[in-house]
């Protein structure tokens, strides 16, 4: 069995099997950026600076573990889908608030 057949989309895109160091860093940065985006779109609240820093530190540490899983499992792809769903939700929420204020 060829290992390239089992790689996830982003792992294959970044050629983790050919350039493991660069590919893993790119996969890590992708997963971290998508995790931050999903957090900001879906779960972030106004917090003091110290608490926000702690949350982002744990988010970055969690992304490290997700990167190793993301080689063969669709972790980054799932984060892309979650981000798209949350973006659509935010746009619809913004549109409904806009129509409510125009109706008043």
From TrEMBL:
Protein's name according to its UniProt entry: YlaH-like family protein
Keywords, alphabetical: Membrane, Transmembrane, Transmembrane helix
TM regions (residue ranges): 22-41, 53-72
Database matches in Pfam families: YlaH (PF14036)
Record organism: Neobacillus thermocopriae
């Amino acid at each position: 069995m060829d290992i390239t057949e089992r790689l996830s989309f982003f792992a294959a895109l970044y050629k983790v099997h050919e350039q493991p160091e660069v590919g893993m860093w790119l996969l890590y940065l992708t997963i971290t950026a998508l995790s931050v985006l999903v957090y900001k779109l879906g779960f972030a609240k106004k917090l003091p600076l110290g608490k926000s820093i702690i949350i982002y530190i744990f988010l970055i540490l969690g992304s490290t573990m997700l990167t190793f899983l993301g080689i063969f499992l669709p972790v980054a792809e799932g984060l892309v889908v979650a981000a798209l769903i949350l973006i659509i939700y935010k746009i619809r929420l913004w549109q409904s608030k806009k129509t409510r204020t125009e109706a008043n």
